[in-house]
Amino acid sequence: MRLNSSPPDSLHDGGSVGVSGTDLAFQSIRDRFPLKRNPSHHHNRSKSDSDRSPPHRGRSHHGRFNRKGLLWLKGRSAFYSVVIFAVFLFAMASMVLQSSMTSVFRQGSERGRSLREGLRFGSTLKFVPAVVSRRDGLDSLRSEPRIGIRAPRLALILGNMKKNPQSLMLFTVMKNLQKLGYVLKIFATADGQARSMWEQIGGQLSILSPERYSLIDWLIFEGIIVDSLEVKEAISSLMQEPFCSVPLVWIIQEDTLANRLPAYEEMDWKHLVSHWKTAFSRASVVVFPDFTLPMLYSVLDTGNFFVIPGSPVDVWAAESYSKTQSKYQLRQDNGFSKDDLLVLVIGSSFYYNDLSWGYAVAMHVIGPLLTKYARKNDSGGSFKFVFLCGNSTDGYDDSLQGVASRLGLLHGSVRHYGLNSDVNGVLLMADIVLYASNQDLQGFPSLLIRAMTFGIPVIAPDLPIFRKYVVDGVHGILFPKHNPDALMTAFSLLISSGKLSEFAQAVASSGRLLAKNMLASECITGFARILENVLNFSSDAMLPGPISQLRQGAWEWNLFRKEIELSTGEKQISDGKATFFGKFSVVHALEEEFTNFVYSTNGSENGTGILPQDIPTKLDWDVLREIESSEENERVEMEELEERVERDIGDWDEIYRNARKSEKLKFEANERDEGELERTGQPVCIYEIYSGAGSWPFLHHGSLYRGLSLSSRGRRLRSDDVDAVGRLPILNDSYYRDILCEIGGMFSIAKRVDNIHGRPWIGFQSWRAAGRKASLSLKAEKVLEETMQDNTKGDVIYFWVRLNMNGATGSNDVLTFWSMCDILNGGHCRSAFEDAFHQTYALPMHVEALPPMPEDGGHWSALHSWVMPTPSFLEFMMFSRMFADSLHSLHTNPTQNNTCLLGSSALEKKHCYCRILELLVNVWAYHSGRKMVYIDPHTGSLEEQHPIEQRKGFMWAKYFNFTLLKSMDEDLAEAADDDDHPHNMWLWPLTGEVHWQGIYEREREERYRLKMDKKRKTKEKLFERMKHGYKQRSLGG
């Protein structure tokens, strides 16, 4: 939040207040309506009256005025008289308009109060967006060598499929993003008339029901775009791990929720506001189409608000309105004649306390205009000046007429309309629209866009926002601000004999063409740029094309022309953007849910829940403790009496039955669920590795599977899932859990494997296999179990998720194993593997250390989805631990840059070793001589890959020999036992068991020492008993 104030320019120098004063971290506000009354209205009105007291003393000279010519209006007295009129009009209007924004500040509590106190005379609000991820877009990534094999994927979730201006904007943007190379997958929460239109660019469209939100693997997308508040439930599913890291762009085009936020504050619904704020915080960026909405939603801002100007909503509203309304009929209904020339004066619609005075004084530039054209009907026509500001229910029109009559203006020459009236009708009636505010703007005023769409010539000061879009003399007339003479000259260009000149008609026609697609190009490029800055482009994804190749600068009107023609031009179009959406069910549904919660809570507090007499007192607890103590003493005495009474121990059959019964009860006490019983006798158990509640719907149930949670907090409730963190404490550190991923869970199973896994076969499967429809079907599971039972001889690995070896899209090239590994690891797989291999086996640098992998067209395993014998698994873990430690030591070398080179995006760098460790099983299985069999996950068909007979001459069996690996493991264990760490951050001892012969001998000696101590204590106890005799304890003692 930033506040920089500068003193207002002197009025004698032609300056204006509120133009270039304060810059605040808010967006300057576009014209917006309707507005609320200011609760402090009367206070401000009295203040304005007191401030105007000096000019009022000048009215004592009215009696000496010349009735024919009103000569007093010449010179300085004329100037100040008009200033009085302008001040009165706009100050009165601004008082009412204050309430809309002060209510917004009240929502922000301390933050809003500090802003309100910081605003002062000459201040301006300005929105400053937060810093996005990459300020330079993709320029740095494009400069690096990169091989992408697939197009970047985007998921688009639609809140509805209506054809309205919001969908027109989104459709235009998505169509242009496709031209940059993005591939779209479109989801919708409900079906609608726009389905066929969306399927033209996104293919088959999927309708999402609430139960389907959690059945989509969102990790396959580079980012997700949602278009409305209605998609809030889908966003809730994205707030769970592992989907929290997927970039999310949330487009908010409606103010439905913003209009309810003040009510939430008044009713003290803090939990509901917090609920929405949490949802907004999930988005990587919340995008608004104008600079008004961020202010209205400011209470929910968590630093991720952003504005991309541009929406066809104003053009759509104006065109729809003009098709059903007549300009002359509207004039007749409002008391204007056909020959009247209406000049509509508009300005900035938001004011903040004292800022209204600065704005009102700035309006002195229209003084000479009123003096010349509204004084007498002697200029060739009847001129009417209409002021559009404030609300129409505060008696402003009567006050305005009274002031106009005292200033000598014709009765009816000045009219006032509020922004809560039919704004489109007021705009359509006008012949000329004058924008009279001199405050700098960030966005093009929506009222001017509608006026230009109606074909009305506009006059505006030469503010930067107008110079950016409007060519002076072509699309409108621009005049230097604070210059009344320039305004008079600009106005005269549009008037000829009391009517609009031909030049005015040409300007109006050009302005209408400009307004139709004025902000389209900026909107399209804005979304393309924000995606470049926010999305995570994985190493195997191609980068989108540069934004400079976008040439389209128009909305896709041709697909929506029928909807515009069928629009009925109802008045609610002038009420803003919410009318196109109606009442959002998600907003009102949450309100009802929260209301029921409040009522139930209040009911409990009022006695409908737990009655006061039902709550135990301190005396009740004391009595209860005395009763329990008495019962415990009685039980102990009875047990001691039973021990002294001679009993018949019974026969051996009864003793055996009692023992069995005790074992059964003990087993039932430790039983976790039915899955453990079902797995009894199974030859294999497949551990499904997952992290976070978001992956729960992808996990299997049954005797073949068992969950393996990488996070204690994300573990499934009421299940016998293995807690990897409990077995391997290093996974409690999020850094190591992120860089190791699934293989960290495997390390936890391998550590004291006999305590958890006692079956001959063991398997693993990532939850992502089910998310990508590559998990085993029931038929494939049956084939796998039968195959393992029949083939008990030999060492074999079965896998069912294969590595995609296809080349880039549109290419027939087939990739090799190492080239694919390079693509998945930022182009550094071979170098990293070779360096780690050198480190693991302490090989000289001149020795080749990249194991050869065949190019025989066979499949390779991916996603850690395989089954192998348990002894083979332990051997693989032995090798993996040493390799992971070597890889980690290379990336934690204090003399080198420790930035992860195995990924291009921030997400890939976070999970640095995951992709190379995912492919490690292929290198170990191939070179250790394991038989590799691919099982089709759908049909269950088996196919051997890379036959052992064809590996002769290629395998590096000496490096994967079990004896060598075992000796290396013992050497590392001895070094760890002696605290002889080869480097500072030594990963190997933390990933599993540390065991060597010295540890075994030390443990044996410790057991022997404990045994001798026990014998010594027993002898001492017998000696004491023989010496002093045996003393019987007293009853109850």
UniProtKB/TrEMBL annotation:
<feature type="region of interest" description="Disordered">
    <location>
        <begin position="33"/>
        <end position="62"/>
    </location>
</feature>
<keyword id="KW-0808">Transferase</keyword>
<keyword id="KW-0812">Transmembrane</keyword>
<keyword id="KW-0328">Glycosyltransferase</keyword>
<feature type="transmembrane region" description="Helical">
    <location>
        <begin position="77"/>
        <end position="97"/>
    </location>
</feature>
<dbReference type="InterPro" id="IPR001296">
    <property type="entry name" value="Glyco_trans_1"/>
</dbReference>
<dbReference type="Pfam" id="PF00534">
    <property type="entry name" value="Glycos_transf_1"/>
</dbReference>
<dbReference type="GO" id="GO:0016757">
    <property type="term" value="F:glycosyltransferase activity"/>
</dbReference>
<protein>
    <recommendedName>
        <fullName>Glycosyl transferase family 1 domain-containing protein</fullName>
    </recommendedName>
</protein>
<keyword id="KW-0472">Membrane</keyword>
<keyword id="KW-1133">Transmembrane helix</keyword>
<feature type="domain" description="Glycosyl transferase family 1">
    <location>
        <begin position="396"/>
        <end position="501"/>
    </location>
</feature>
